[in-house]
Write a structure and sequence with these properties.
alpha/beta; 49% helix; 3 domains; Alpha-Beta Plaits; 14 helices; 6-stranded mixed β-sheet
């Protein structure tokens, strides 16, 4: 921005600077310049020191109140009231130009000031970016479902870059069971388009443009950042690519490459942590919790329920005639049936529920804060989901049904102290045993049905716990 009361000076300098490739705006007075500074993202102000009304010195002080980054070069036609060095110190300006020295000297000041502006902005962006990464890193490293983590990574990248459209492609653990397509890179690892924002929301690999696919492939192959009209950022765990962030660029991002690499490194570590956690807690075939992890979660749920007086229910489900399915169609068909049933269960439970593979073809679902009626309703919804599965195996349709048992444990009314570990353990055993007995009745009465046990009072569990404690003490 050029500020001068002389219209001919404004016109001459605008032409000179425009010819050098700069975008130039002009103001004929201090008040107009102050207004333009608030309206535009001004990088450099060439400012006449002596102006009527709002003087150059007064304008500098007011601009500095809200903008510390803009570079300011004072211009004078005669001797200033203060020495140039003192003005540079007192007014927080970056240059002083005597108009009598001609346009070449002015262009030197312009080039130097704009370089300083870019350097200062890069330092600020890097500093702010590092602060941002430090602030969001705990969120990335929180244990959470992988798809939730992917969405979090995109949202955090959006905060860092201000992106409008992006997606994350990650290593697909079971691409054959996923809804989205996957891509292959030469070392035969599989990638899956996990989650997207903007115009990539809901996109799959097939629906991406060829240039977008090529960007992801090139980034995954080389492990290096790629950039054209988009940005491909590799997610590296050590020297191994675990994913790629694809970002659509409307403007060149101000964040430098090193900062993006730091963010991507944190994101990759978070992905690896989730994968390692899932290896220990998620059943490979059904994608539900392993038996050990599910039992651990059930005890934690019961511990809170007994402490705060909430009912807890358990649904136990068994695929009917599963041995016959294996005998007739083979174990691969059985695996497909179990994977499909696990997906149906996972899609229909609530966010607070935890489903696990209890063993073989048996599934279990913990329902916190749920009474017997609510558990029966969800059990019917799950049974319907399994029955409606359309599974195709070697041009044959596999139809599944499930037998289901439901059990509920009721806490003591008014009970508000922490339960003993023995009581928690006994409550778990009785709840599982009761649900298993109800499941057995469902099978005995013809299968493809739901049996609901009478709710269990926690007093029964306390009685068993005290009896076992007495027996141990007197053995």
């Amino acid at each position: 921005m050029v500020v001068d009361e002389d219209v001919s000076v404004l016109s001459t300098l605008k032409q000179l600077l425009s010819d050098e490739g700069h975008n130039v705006i002009t103001a004929s007075g201090g008040l107009e310049a102050l207004h333009l500074c608030r309206e535009y993202n001004v990088h450099l102000i060439l400012l006449e020191y002596s102006m009527p009304g709002l003087t150059g010195e007064a304008l500098v002080r007011q601009v500095r109140a809200f903008d510390q980054e803009v570079q300011i070069v004072l211009q004078t036609s005669g001797a200033p009231e203060l020495p140039a060095r003192q003005m540079l110190h007192d007014l927080e300006i970056q240059g002083y130009h005597d108009k009598s020295e001609g346009p070449e000297k002015l262009l030197v000041w312009v080039d130097a000031a704009l370089k300083a502006f870019r350097a200062n902005r890069a330092i600020r962006v890097t500093r702010d970016g590092l602060r941002y990464i430090l602030r969001v890193t705990p969120e990335l490293h929180r244990l959470q479902p992988l798809d939730d983590l992917m969405r979090s990574i995109l949202l955090q990248a959006q905060g860092l870059l201000g992106l409008s459209g992006a997606f994350v492609a990650s290593l697909a653990k079971h691409p054959e069971l996923a809804n989205n397509a996957f891509l292959a890179i030469p070392d035969r690892q599989k990638f899956l388009v996990r989650v997207g924002t903007g115009r990539f929301e809901g996109k799959t690999w097939e629906t991406l443009e060829s240039s977008e696919k090529e960007m992801v492939l090139a980034t995954a192959k080389t492990g290096q950042m790629h950039k054209n009209s988009a940005l491909g950022i590799p997610l590296l765990a050590g020297d191994r690519v675990v994913g790629v962030i694809f970002i659509e660029l409307s403007l060149d991002p101000a964040v430098d490459a090193e900062l993006l690499e730091i963010f991507a490194s944190q994101a990759a570590i978070a992905i690896e942590n989730v994968r390692l956690y899932e290896l220990a807690t998620v059943d490979d075939l059904t994608q539900l919790s392993t038996r050990r992890h599910w039992l651990h979660h059930l005890e934690n749920t019961l511990r809170l329920a007994l402490r705060y007086g909430h009912p807890t229910s358990l649904v136990m489900m068994d695929i009917d005639h599963f041995k016959e399915l294996n005998d007739v169609h083979g174990h691969l068909a059985g695996d497909l049936a179990l994977a499909s049933a696990g997906r149906a269960v996972k899609e229909r439970i609530r966010r607070s529920d935890v489903a696990g593979r209890y063993g073989g073809e048996e599934f279990v679902i913990t329902l916190p804060h749920t009474d017997s009626a609510g558990a029966q309703k969800l059990a019917a919804y799950l049974r319907e989901g399994v029955a409606n599965l359309a599974i195709s195996w070697e041009n044959q349709a596999l139809r599944l049904t499930a037998s289901t048992g439901v059990a509920t444990v009721l806490p003591i009314v008014g009970h508000r102290h922490a339960p003993s570990e023995e009581l928690v353990s006994q409550a778990r055993k009785i709840l599982v045993r009761t649900a298993d007995d109800a499941l057995l009745r469902a099978k005995q009465q013809g299968r493809d049905r739901i049996e609901v046990a009478e709710p269990i009072t926690i007093e029964a569990a306390e009685t068993v716990a005290k009896r076992e404690e007495y027996d141990r003490a007197n053995t």
